[in-house]
Design brief:
- The complex is a heterodimer.
- In chain A, 71% of the residues lie in helices and 0% in strands.
- Chain A is globular, with a radius of gyration of 24 Å.
- Chain A starts with a helix and ends in a 10-residue tail after the last helix.
- In chain B, helix 12 crosses helix 16 and helix 14 packs across helix 16.
- By secondary structure, chain B is mainly alpha-helical.
- Chain B has a single domain, classed as MetI-like (MetI-like fold).
- Chain B contains 16 helices and no strands.
- The chains are: A mainly alpha, B mainly alpha.
- At the A-B interface, helix 1, helix 3, helix 4, helix 5 and helix 6 of A face helix 2, helix 5, helix 6, helix 7 and helix 11 of B.
- Chain B: Belongs to the binding-protein-dependent transport system permease family.
């Protein structure tokens, strides 16, 4: 041990700053989750906070705003999965079938760019183009039509969210799938074509099986994050659309607990609920992936 | 001579011989789809840029917030941004946060990626597990907020950088690169020559990893540049806010939403309202567009190798 330490201490020293960061900003807050089981008050010493078991979770599930927030989260999460995933794959397949490398690189650059934009930027651009005072509304007025109202209409928020995901994130999915497509051995296509397989049959029997590991990997990651739909897209449109439609778990915790009146233990319980469900789902999804003979995100070793 | 060269060079764009030509209808639908999708992304961005250079009169005659075809050219909005007021301060702050944060992130990431790249070194496995566990669980919003408060970092700019300083994903990607793409023979040779780990890292490993290091640094930089939520959460009380927060306040004022007016008065100005707002948007886009070609060139490979081998 001492000898290995004498040998390896520089490696440990290099790892130390990152470990310190993880300890302070990941593991320490993780440990603070214990206050979900306490009647926590910042005004008394930590050990004097009484343990209350699952009382805060009971209070959470009985909160009239919690269930709608949970259902919204699941709704947007599944909508994102069912819409963005196929769209990314379709974009990648179309791009892959384009023969001209010039067209490919131009289109890739364009579609992928908004992925790096912040949500503030994306929502601003949407308000300016599709909002009631925006570009399209002005055209419609010019043609004698009505202003668009769907940037502030709760009933069509799902459609708006689709547009925003398609605008911002589809290019990212496309790049991932394109890379997966590029790793398929081209001689497979050639052999199939020589044997008389049509374009569609080649796609079905070579392309899709070829990108299956990537699809499974992304699915697992997505399932683990099923209760994490992001904060910004919903918070930024909360005032325009209304909180009933845009309340997701993260905004619920922020508005009810961090700046609201529900207190630390309540917000922590809500976050812990989210974290534990996420943990369980990742483990299950990975297990299922292993059973289906896929690699998943970690090996069993 | 050149003619022969061109002939010998295989044309990448050519359709392979075994692949049949698609029907004109298929080609047409495909082209239409690509053009429409591309236009839906490019046109709004173009309108933003065009509007940021518009004068009051041309904006008024276009009757809206955005115009597609600029009729004149005014840089009033940009003068406003760079006149040393609240917007200038915000931009300088955001640049500072981005530079400082990225530097710190790189130190943490490189150190840990190299420190954990030697399987079988002391504590290698448990430390790696500590990193990997962050993929499975999230500590939650409130506990993180509480820790920032306990550290006395609430309403301190450090609270924007420190909590997001390390991305376990980038760490794993870089570690995979160090393990798979830096030849072991070189490392062994360096050790034979008596070079320590620090020397090996700086003289051999880092110079061989320039491209991936640049990509990871750019990813961190984009993350810091786009910071919005941590600013809302951790520094609500500070006067100078990151540029995204400023943009959000200006946006709220457009929508005529309650509570926005008080925040926005400090950005009222001589430049046309819409032009000023769009000029801020352009300022937040420019750094990304400058970095973008580089990210695009090197990034895909890095992420995919990381995701698959990690």
């Amino acid at each position: 041990m001492a000898q290995r330490f004498r040998h390896d201490w520089p490696l440990l020293l290099m790892t130390l700053p990152a470990m310190a960061q993880l300890a302070v900003f990941f593991y320490w807050p993780s440990a603070w989750n214990i206050i979900a089981f306490m009647d926590y008050s910042p005004h008394r010493p930590f050990w004097e906070n009484p343990l209350v078991g699952f009382a805060w979770f009971e209070r959470l599930f009985n909160n009239p705003y919690f269930l709608p927030a949970l259902l919204n989260t699941l709704k947007y999460s599944f909508a994102n999965l069912l819409f963005l995933f196929p769209l990314s794959i379709v974009l990648a397949l179309v791009m892959h079938s384009v023969v001209s490398t010039k067209v490919r690189s131009v289109f890739q650059s364009i579609v992928y760019l908004p992925y790096f934009f912040s949500w503030v930027l994306v929502v601003t651009v949407f308000v300016q183009t599709l909002g009631s005072d925006g570009l399209v509304s002005n055209w419609l007025l010019g043609f004698g039509g009505d202003r668009l109202s769907f940037m502030s209409n709760p009933d069509t928020f799902m459609f708006l969210a689709w547009l925003q995901w398609a605008w911002k994130d589809a290019g990212w999915g496309m790049i991932i799938f394109l890379a997966a497509l590029a790793s398929i051995n081209p001689s497979l296509y050639e052999a199939a074509a020589v044997d008389g397989a049509s374009r569609w049959r080649r796609m079905w029997h070579i392309t899709l099986p070829g990108i299956r590991p990537v699809i499974v990997l992304l699915l697992i990651l997505h399932i683990g994050g099923i209760l994490t739909v992001g904060f910004e897209q919903y918070q930024l449109q909360r005032d325009a659309i209304g909180y009933q439609t845009t309340e997701v778990l993260d905004t619920f915790i922020y508005y009810r607990s961090v700046i609201g009146t529900e207190g630390a233990s309540f917000g922590t319980a809500a976050g812990l609920f989210k974290g534990v469900i996420g943990l369980i789902l990742v483990l299950i999804a990975n297990n299922v992936a292993h059973r289906l003979g896929e690699q998943g995100i970690y090996q069993k070793s | 001579m050149t003619a022969i060269d061109i002939k010998l060079k295989p044309r990448k764009s050519a359709r392979p011989v075994w692949d049949e030509e698609p029907s004109w209808f298929g080609k047409f639908v495909k082209a239409l789809f690509l053009i429409a999708y591309g236009a839906a992304i490019v046109l709004p961005i173009w309108a933003v840029v065009a509007t940021s250079f518009a004068s009051e009169e041309s904006l008024a005659s276009a009757g809206g917030n955005l115009l597609l075809i600029p009729t004149d050219f005014s840089i009033a909005a940009y003068q406003e941004i760079f006149d040393g007021g609240a917007l200038t301060k915000s931009l300088i702050l955001t640049i500072g946060l981005t530079a400082g944060g990225t530097a710190l992130s790189m130190v943490l990431t490189i150190g840990a990626a190299y420190g954990l790249s030697r399987t079988g070194s002391l504590l290698h496995r448990p430390l790696l597990m500590l990193v990997l566990f962050t993929f499975l669980f999230a500590p939650g919003l409130y506990p993180s907020f509480l820790v920032v408060q306990k550290l006395g970092l609430f309403n301190n700019y450090l609270s924007i950088i420190l909590p997001m300083a390390l991305s376990a994903f980038n760490l794993i990607v870089l570690r995979a690169f160090f393990m798979n793409s830096v030849p072991t023979e070189l490392l062994d040779a360096a050790r034979m020559d008596g070079a320590g780990e620090f020397r090996t890292l700086f003289k051999i490993v880092l110079p061989m990893s320039k491209a991936i290091l640049a990509v990871i640094a750019l990813f961190y930089a984009v993350g810091y540049w786009n910071i919005y939520f941590s600013a809302v959460l951790y520094i609500p009380g500070l006067e100078t806010q990151p540029i995204q927060v400023v943009l959000q306040r200006m946006l709220m004022s457009t929508q005529g939403l309650p509570g926005a007016a008080a925040n926005v008065s400090q950005y009222q100005s001589a430049a046309p309202d819409a032009a000023l707002k769009m000029a801020v948007v352009v300022c937040t886009i420019i750094p990304i567009v400058i970095m973008y070609p580089f990210i695009q060139k090197h990034f895909t490979k890095a992420v995919i190798t990381g995701a698959i081998k990690g």
